[in-house]
Design goal:
By secondary structure, the protein is α+β, with helices and mostly antiparallel strands. It contains two helices and four strands. The protein has one domain (2-64): Roll (Ubiquitin-like (UB roll)), CATH 3.10.20.30.
């Protein structure tokens, strides 16, 4: 089945989860998502878990986060 990741069509097996689809598109991006360094959303901008099964035509956006770790409590002081 065909899904779309960051506007790129990716062909995967039926029943594939988000993690495997991202891995098929870009293994480094999948590693970032698994580490929490990238945010994965659906076409509406709603975060999706990596173990969610995809349907044909699913649209995912994967964005690498600029910040890592916990925010500095003194950053706005």
């Amino acid at each position: 089945m065909r899904v779309f990741i960051n506007a790129t069509p990716v062909d995967v097996e039926a029943g594939t989860d988000v993690r495997a689809a991202i891995r098929a598109h870009d293994p480094a991006l999948e590693a970032s998502a698994a580490e929490g360094a990238a945010l994965v959303t659906d076409a509406r901008g709603i975060a999706v878990p990596l173990d969610q099964r995809l349907a044909a035509g699913s649209i995912l956006r994967v964005v690498v986060r600029a910040r890592r770790g916990e925010p500095d409590p003194d950053a706005d002081a």
